[in-house]
Amino acid sequence: MKRNNNSLKLLYTKKDWSIFLSFLSAIFIVNVSVLYSQYLDFKKEELYFTNAEISNVYSKHDYQVLKLKNSEITFFTSVSKKENYHLFDRVNITLVTSDIEFFDYTKGFYAKSFNLYLQEHQEESLKEKLSLSIKTQHKDEKISRLFDALFFAVPLSQQLRDICATYGISHLIAISGFHLGVISFVVFWILYYPYTLVHGKYFPYRNKKFDILMMTSLLLLSYLIFTQMVPSLLRAFVMFILGIYFLRFNFKLISFQTLLITVLFIIAFFPEYLFLLSLWFSVIAVLYIFLFLKYFDSLSKVGQFIFFNFWIYLVMNPVSHYFFGDTALIQFLSPIVTVGFTLFYPLEILFHLIGFGGVLDGLIQWAISVKTNSYEVFTPMWFFYGYVLLSFLSIVSKKAFVLLNIMFVVFNIYIYTSQT
Asked: Rounded distance, CA 237 to CA 265, Å?
């Protein structure tokens, strides 16, 4: 991929950066102050009554854990297995606030609770109606939950999460930049032809593609709000908006500066996302994508496409295995599954829209029922921090990038031969 050397940078001088960082720092301080004020209101009384929606149910040995959300907080609480609660149920609940610190409040916390009961006369939300539509198109509940996750960012069940981890395809299920890219592509071309007729008749003087991108952006923003601001999706959306702006004014689009600006914007406006692992996984993945484009741009487009999916999987392994140790030889199929997913995902969107979402259920059922041996291998702390440091040094040093490649090759040989 050849880069446009005539593209401009958004920020050049130290003065530019000082003004920009001062602006974002002020926004960050204001938002943290608002969060802290909400926290003080939350802690004002030892008992806090609220209502919330159940976003996941985790079954334990002799109890279950509910994940609940409302407009201000995300929290977890334990209930008896005798209680019958389901995804999307809206409940009233009283929390004990005495042991909750500000740090826990910002990133999601566990709280003791009582007086938990369902709200009466609950009307189905749009997400519930869409989820029900998906459910009616599948016979297997696991598969319908899979598509709830793919389309609406609903958390997977523990069983499905373990299956995806074993296959090494968790990145395909968590809605992120790839999914946003597919959705934006589909929306763009749905709008393109109708708008072409209107454009040619009423305002041919306007930039047609830019107008369609603006309409696409509004629909993507609606989708982002609908999914309750999933961090990885938010990162992708901010980069999408910046990308439109940069292209319009001939700023350099694919650059590490773009990624840095995106991250700073998100943290400034959503400081609570600073502690969310999903955001940082998304950011590090984009960092590696940009490193690939920087150092392998001499490859042909076909060569890039084939090599990229294997390279990005292997280079991410030392990072992902620091947090999640699931390892299996079948994970070597992950790059191939990722390529297939580029066709599978838009097809499934189409199938579900026309009411035939179960067409490929046989294939999915076979895939999730395959028995495979898995084991746990975690990245040592010293290796992880050295690897991350080397990843950032690779932005400016080709020697660091070469060493990075050697490190992830050695690491992957280690994890996949440790049980043989």
From this structure: 12
CA-wise closest residue to 50 among 109, 88, 95: 95
Residue 295 burial (C-beta neighbours within 10 Å; 0-12, 13-18, 19+): middle
Contacts of 85 (CB under 8 A, 6+ apart): 54, 57, 64, 66, 79, 91, 118
Beta bridge partners of 327: 375
pTM of structure: 0.83
Distance CA 76, CA 281 (A): 23
Buried b / exposed e over 8-47, threshold 16 CB at 10 Å, is eebbeeeeeeeeeeeebeebbeebbeebeeebeebeeeee
Domain total of the chain: 2
194 and 114 assigned to the same domain: no
Indicate if 110 and 240 belong to the same structural domain. Answer: no
Establish if 374 belongs to a structural domain.
yes
Report DSSP state, residue 154. P
In the structure encoding, which two tokens stand for residue 408, read together? 């992830």
Pairing of strands 375-376, 326-327: antiparallel
Alpha-carbon distance of 111 to 63, in angstroms, equals 15
Q: What is the pLDDT of residues 42-89, one digit of tens each?
A: 998 899 998 888 888 888 878 888 999 888 888 999 988 878 888 888
Same domain, 93 and 177: no
Handedness of CA 76, 53, 56, 220 (dihedral sign): negative
* Strand positions, DSSP E, 277-332: 326-327
Could you tell me if 215 and 114 lie in one domain?
Answer: no
Residue 386 has pLDDT above 90, yes or no: yes
